[in-house]
Write a structure and sequence with these properties.
By secondary structure, the protein is α/β, with parallel strands linked by helices. Helix 1 links the parallel strand 1 and strand 2. The model has no long low-confidence stretch (mean pLDDT about 90).
Amino acid sequence: MPVIHTLSLLYLDETDINDDSLHVISKNAPNLNSVSIIGCKYSTEKGILILTSSCRKLEYFGMGSSYQNLSLYAISNECSTLMYIDARSTSLSSHVKLQELTASCHRLHSIRLLKVTGLDDLAIEIIADNCTELKDAHFSGSSDITVSGVTYMLIKCRMLTELILKSCML
């Protein structure tokens, strides 16, 4: 398969894309800067890690599946160009991994974590500490975020223009 240097945007939401396909894409479309695989039931953490570590120009990445338990930590720490993360129906299994990911994605401008299990005040504080240039934060469906976490983010993220906390128990 030829290398396609011109392809920069690839949205595969709700398709049957699998890890082998993600591997082929990562090897043959090195200049991708926007990828979304939300709702892809055959994509696993292995494929996501391969894609995000190979596509070094990636600025937007969307993932999530209600079919399997994907972790936000499948996103490679080497993906330092990320500015937008959209994760749905995933999990945060470790605050240490969140620390590593957000420290490597210090240019992050927008983060959408919808129905992410394990999202709590400490996770919000880690994001706020490492992503001070954050402009848009959307955290929906978490019962573990309190006013304390929200206040911390508002103090740390001075460029924040949009904060959405839909279905959160404050």
